[in-house]
Write a structure and sequence with these properties.
Layout (H helix, E strand, L loop, with lengths): L1 H33 L2 E5 L7 E2 L13 E4 H14 L5 E2 L2 H7 L2 E4 L2 E2 L2 E12 L4 E5 L4 E6 L7 E2 L4 E6 L2 H12 L9 H17 L3 H10 L6 E4 L4 E6 L6 E2 L4 E6 L3 E9 H4 L7 E5 L6 E14 L4 E9 L10 E9 L3 E5 L4 E2 L4 E8 L2 E13 L2 E6 L6 E5 L1 H35 L7
Antiparallel strand pairs: 1-2, 1-3, 4-24, 5-26, 6-21, 7-16, 7-20, 8-15, 9-11, 9-14, 10-13, 11-12, 13-15, 16-19, 17-18, 17-20, 18-19, 21-25, 22-23, 23-24, 24-25
Helix pairs in contact: 4-5
Length: 433
Amino acid sequence: MRKASYLLLLLAAMFLSYLLGQRHTSKQTNAAGAHRVLYWVDPMHPSYKSDKPGIAPDCGMQLEPVYADDVEMTKVSSMARMTAGAVNIDTERQQSFGIKVVTVKKSSGMHSVRLLGRVEADETRVYRINAGVDGYIRETYQDTVGSKVKKDQRLATFYGPEFLTVAGGYISATERTPGAISQTAVRGSQNWADRLRNLGMSDFQINELAETRKLPEVVYMVSPVDGFVLARNVSAGLKFDRGTEFYRIADLKRVWIVADVYENDAESFNPGAVAQVTLPGQGKAFPAVVSDVLPQVDPATRTLKLRLEADNPEYALRPEMFVDVALKTKIAAGISIPQEAVLDSGMQKIVYVETRESVFEPRPVKIGEVYGNQVSVSSGLTVGDRIVTSGNFLVDSESRLRSTAVFSSSRQQDDQQHVASSAIHTHHPQALP
């Protein structure tokens, strides 16, 4: 019985010695594998690599080995230094993803804004020709909407019976009598002339009536100004009532340009600010001046109307044309970045910053006013930071994937530690016989 016990103890000791030997051999093998040389580098230019030892071709120094365990420790150290959400994307992947990085700079005191404008006729230069009596159109001419007309150009003729009585009174009042004309006679003729004007007769025909001293068969409808026909509502034989609008003519030597601006941007456009108006595709540019921001708000777009005025001597700008408007506005000194660099996560707005080469981390920022495609930043960035302006959605996806992987790994380690801790506390060694 005692011999059998000694034999069992001897066998157990031999088995334990074998296990310890295997473990020591495994450690040596792993250590040897980890300490193997991956490649050799030039100590003066680490970018030069060689798969065998030798002499550096540029400086003549001995190449230095790079071991696997050193590379692994560098990776681990780098990963340990990366903050939550940071992601490492090498240069090749950045190019394939279309990732662009720019340096944050301090914004200047002026900012260029581009708007889409629409040309409109200056309402103070629009003339309406209305009927002052009941009557009918006798004759019309070849003027149409869009036609250019001259001042006192005949547009149409019409007949109204009320003109005969008033025209007769005017002729009588302007009859020349020997001697000086009294002031009463002058005022009387002016009163008759005003009555003719109220009925719709032009000054051109009133002067003609004073010269010919004949009752007119028809009344001439003439253009009051050099301009363009915006509306025309006449045809031969048309019967009309008092107040009917015949023509609407605009003097386009000076026009308005109207552009939409957001409510929070409206305060930046002060009356008197100079702008540049350009016709798309033609390259023609015109200076314009901001005259006002109209108070009406578009309920659909929540925008206001910015009105500018521009001289138009060659009539290149026509109503309903679309033009590009460029003007400069003053902005508070600070940091501004492209709008596309900002990602809205719902709870906060973030920008991806390149903290080290090819390492990007999310940075919460507070943004302020928007200027065109730029947005001001009140906190979160400093001058000199390098931020992602293109491809940031891909960087954000990569960051989220890494954060999920790190979270899962952390949960797994916590579960393993919990199981090990539970095993230690629940294990009860059996008593020796």
